[in-house]
Amino acid sequence: MNCIFCKIINGEIPSSKVYEDEYCLAFKDLNPAAPVHVLVVPKTHIESLDCVNGENIDTVSKVISAIPAVAKEAGIQNGYRVITNIGEDGGQTVKHLHFHILGGKKLTEKLN
Asked: pTM value?
């Protein structure tokens, strides 16, 4: 598989790891959109939220459950935003489910 996130998970590509457990890996985004910008990816390849099903929902649930610990580990104290992009029109550039955690400053309500 030629997925950059799978290569990061497998240690083939280095990353700035923030958090890791049995189900997910979290690392700093290379092009941050906020003072703190971390990506949380499941260790199992799932293309996007559109591909969540009965076989992988437990993994996705564990990944989502880890997000507060990731935010805390990243040093976020006063709230954060979680975003996932789905498909080309949704801005998804890597076809591996991932959640952006943005924080480290007061974010505006505007998303674009």
From this structure: 0.94
